[in-house]
Design goal:
2 domains; about 350 residues; binds zinc ion; 15 helices; alpha/beta
């Protein structure tokens, strides 16, 4: 996507960016904030195409000039995106950026640099970047993308024009999946509700076997309270074992997988708690399981549900801290059984 009009939602951010372009008052550095998958990089691309377009129309690239055509073909020479090299954006990447900024743009009026997941900059990289922001060379626009302002040095934040991007509404994501990807309405609705407002995540789930795996994780969670102790231990081992199957090279992937499992399980307890409190069906995430959920609310105690949500929250935090994943999953399963047994 390279046009502002193609971005789903985010009217406020789009209008703000287009307004600056139309008045020719473009700052040298932007800071785009918001969860991943809601259009930050798309907006950066739209901005880069528009400011370099030879005949822009109402704050949008024309799509036909040499610059726009090269942009759309993905070979525009003055657009760059820096991503973490491994877990972090390292100082060498910022040094390389600094070196490039010293030259005039090759083809366009502006060179645009997007720094994705800027919060992953090492402290050395962040300090080097700060130096660049203090004396930015002309004809360059730097765009930092991050989830939270708090994750960045305040001295960096204060030197950027902030633009905030909001999570997308369930209906917007549902309609987009139906129209653009031909997903059937019910499936699109489930993906949209599970996505926490991130179109990118909804798409990732759609394009993988996520929904199938989610069904398995939920069925196992549903059966857990009634299992005898030995059955619960068996299930705990199963979730711990998936790690071994994938091998140590895939530890990052397994960590993401464990996070997905915990998120799905937490959504289940959240749904039960909401239904018990008399919430309407439209607020339920796992609404393809609605009759099962309603049946389960009978005879289940709020205390167990709340403690299950807190337990999973704790496990997710431990996961962020890169604790022993198999042990963590094993413990979580056993504790969930204890909290919801009988
Ligand atoms: Zn153009």
């Amino acid at each position: 996507m390279t046009a502002f009009s193609e971005i789903l939602g985010q009217e406020k951010a789009r209008d703000f960016l287009k307004h600056a372009i139309l008045r020719d008052k473009i700052p040298h550095a932007y800071l785009f904030t918001g969860i991943p998958g809601i259009g930050k990089t798309c907006a950066a691309r739209a901005l880069a195409m528009t400011v370099n377009c030879l005949e822009p129309i109402d704050g949008e690239g024309c799509g036909h000039c040499l610059s726009c055509r090269r942009f759309k073909d993905g070979n525009f020479p003055d657009f760059f995106c820096i991503k973490p090299d491994g877990k972090n954006i390292k100082i060498d990447q910022i040094r390389e950026l600094n070196r490039k900024l010293g030259f005039a743009p090759v083809l366009g009026k502006y060179r645009v640099y997007v720094i994705s997941r800027a919060q992953t900059m090492t402290i050395e990289a962040a300090n080097a970047f700060l130096k660049i922001l203090e004396e930015p060379p002309p004809q360059n626009i730097l765009i930092l993308n991050t989830t939270e302002l708090l994750d960045l040095l305040p001295t960096i934040v204060s030197r950027c024009q902030r633009v905030s991007f909001q999570p997308l509404p369930v209906k917007g994501i549902t309609d987009w999946l139906v129209k653009k990807k031909g997903v059937d309405v019910e499936k699109a609705g489930i993906l949209a509700r599970l996505s926490n407002g991130s179109l990118g995540w909804a798409l990732d789930m759609y394009e993988s076997d996520f929904l199938q795996r989610r069904k398995e994780w939920l069925s196992q969670l549903i059966s857990l309270p009634a299992l005898p102790k030995t059955g619960a231990v068996e299930m705990a081992f199963k979730y711990a074992d998936e790690h071994k199957k994938k091998g140590p090279d895939d530890s990052g992937q397994w960590q993401a997988n464990a996070m997905d499992i915990l998120t799905v399980w937490q959504s289940w307890y959240r749904d039960l708690l909401l239904l018990k409190a008399g919430a309407g069906d439209h607020l339920i995430i796992n609404f393809d399981f609605i009759s099962k959920l309603k049946k389960m609310t009978e005879g289940i105690k709020n205390k167990g549900l709340i403690n299950s949500i807190l337990l999973i929250d704790q496990s997710q935090q431990e996961l962020h801290r890169m604790r022993n994943v198999p042990l963590l999953m094993e413990n979580t399963v056993l504790q969930l059984q204890r909290l919801n047994h009988g």
